[in-house]
Amino acid sequence: MGLKFSAHLDTLLTDLSVADRIAKFAEIGFPAFELWCWWDYDLDELSKSAKENNISIAAICTKFVSLTDANCRNEYLAGLKETISACKQLDCKVIISQVGNELAGVSREQQKQSIIAGLKESAKLLDSTGITLTIEPLNLLVDHAGYFLSRSDEAAEIIEAVGSKSIKMLFDVYHQQITEGNLIPNIRKYISLIGHFHIADHPGRAWPGTGEINYKNVLAAIDDTGYDGYIGLEFLFRPLIVPGGAKRGDIKERKISIDRQIEILKDFVKAYCDGS
User: Are the CB atoms for 98 and 138 separated by under 8 Å?
Assistant: First the structure.
């Protein structure tokens, strides 16, 4: 496969220090890493560690301010300006944005138009930078009840209405499996509007191979489209649920050791990054 994967600084190998995580990602063979809240990190240290380990920073989030609420637009744009500055410092080309929760007593159409208007203003800040803002549909059933945007078709409608090369979709395979399934046809349909991917398995949001998603086929389908951006590994090393206790049916949690986490990541690289 010719795909590029990005290890997630906030979900993988979190028992290690930030610098050790970045070094380990590079050692395992990842060409990039990404993170959520850049404002929680020392950007100079991130940039230094990335350069020392010859690894790129694929994506960061912008401030979590609602786009559905027009009254919050100036705050959203101020946060985006700060995030663009952070991207320039980190040589990062993708920004991840949520759109906010659905507002009570306001029509979905009015909220959608607020999102579109906010993204049009955002595009003015982005168009000369080479940085792409990606909006993310999230599942409502398991993780994000109350969030406005869950379906890929509605995300595509919003992006097409904005009409800027700087505004695209983050297609999170985990979230879209829960929300709508139909993964491969939707990926093929919307690939020109997709600026970043996230992957995790379902149920459990753990690593590929632990759940119901056929990642061999999904990743092959992404590869076949010619997609050349990053795919972020936003899965969790949750404790395993294993049989245990004195009575039949009792269960206990077993934490996944750091050595086992590293082994899982190495197996992933071997399966999907070594020209297979």
Answer: yes
Q: What one-letter code names the amino acid at 141?
A: L
- Please identify which residue in the block is written with the tokens 């803002």: 133
DSSP 3-state assignment of 8?
strand
Q: How many CA atoms lie within 13 A of 227 on its CB side?
A: 28
Alpha helices in the chain (DSSP H): 18-28, 43-52, 73-90, 108-126, 152-162, 173-179, 183-190, 215-224, 258-272
What CA–CA distance (Å, rounded) separates 224 from 210? 24
- Round the average pLDDT of the chain to a whole number and report it: 94
Q: Provide DSSP, 42-67.
A: -HHHHHHHHHHTT-EE--EE-----S
pTM value? Answer: 0.94
Residue 172's pLDDT is 98
Q: Span 124-142, mean pLDDT?
A: 97
Amino acid at residue number 80: L
Q: Residue 36 above 50 pLDDT? A: yes
**Residues 62/65/66/72 CA torsion (nearest 10 deg):** -120
- Pick the closest to residue 148 from 206, 66, 71, 56 (CA basis): 66
Task: Kindly provide the b/e burial profile for residues 138-150, where b requires at least 16 CB atoms within 10 angstroms of the residue's own CB.
Answer: bbbeeebeebbbb
Domains, in order of start, for the chain? 4-272 (3.20.20.150)
Burial of 269 from C-beta contacts in 10 A (0-12 / 13-18 / 19+):
middle
Confidence of residue 197 (pLDDT cuts 50, 70, 90): very high
Cα(90)–Cα(42) distance, integer angstroms: 11
Phi, then psi, of 57 in degrees rounded to 5 = -105, 110
